UniProtKB/TrEMBL annotation:
Keywords: ATP-binding, Nucleotide-binding
Keyword check for Ligase: no
Record organism: Mucilaginibacter corticis
InterPro entries in alphabetical order: AAA+_ATPase, ABC_transporter-like_ATP-bd, ABC_transporter-like_CS, ABC_transpr_LolD-like, P-loop_NTPase
Protein name: ATP-binding cassette domain-containing protein
Domain ABC transporter: 2-249
Keyword Lipid biosynthesis: no
GO MF annotation terms: ATP binding; ATP hydrolysis activity; transmembrane transporter activity
Amino acid sequence: MITITNIHKTFNRGKANQVNAVNGLDLVINDEEFVVIVGSNGSGKTTLLNLISGSLLPSSGTIDINGDDVTKLADYQRSKWIARVFQNPMSGTASELSILDNFRLAAIRTKVKGLTIGINDAFKQQVKQKIATLGMGLENKIDQPMGTLSGGQRQALTLLMSVMDECKILLLDEPTAALDPRSAEVVMSTADKLSKEFKLTTILVTHNLKDAYNYGTRIIQMAEGAIIKDFAAKQKEHLKQNDLFEWFG
Ligand SMILES: Nc1ncnc2c1ncn2[C@@H]1O[C@H](COP(=O)(O)OP(=O)(O)OP(=O)(O)O)[C@@H](O)[C@H]1O
């Protein structure tokens, strides 16, 4: 469970350009919930993900993950529980290394779920099997440098690699914003599958209202650093796609 209590994040405090990016926000996310966060530009969505991952520390307030107060822990101290995929497909993998070597690195770091570390054929076969689940044919290209793949292919692989053994939380920050519709669909359905298979608590930030409608068990709208709408699973079922379009005028 993630419990966020009265969290504030202010940038440039006391200066003319002070911004209250997150403004006294309270949020409880239960285990295995898949929360979609929508909201206009600058409403504080990415800042909230940065606060949860620990890449930003709050100005005030607390964040508790599964009973541990992580408020003052840096991102590398939280990273064994938290996987994160960013908008830019190039951030998450090493371009000059092969797909297989990227998986080896990830497995050495904290062990990718469903893989046993190794340099032998058994490891290669496991990686191939894992990659085959994407349905992109990449299992036949595992010796190819990551840099030769398309953004969608890289993003899908990043997703597979980011979910480690102790990982409990998956943070997706506009993971499909730079992708064509077909690749976006593969990335989103892979995220959904991983989330269910490994019983992750998932938070997706998106501007894609179709994804917000189709994925997740709960939808939250942010504005000016606060939550202005929060639809839990039962209420989300009754939402129409048009309701979402209306929120954005
Ligand atoms: N490092 C920073 N320094 C100063 N201001 C920042 C910083 N990061 C974010 N902000 C400001 O905080 C506010 C919230 O930004 P944030 O990126 O969280 O919004 P967002 O909802 O994710 O927007 P978008 O949909 O455009 O990605 C914005 O006004 C932004 O300019």
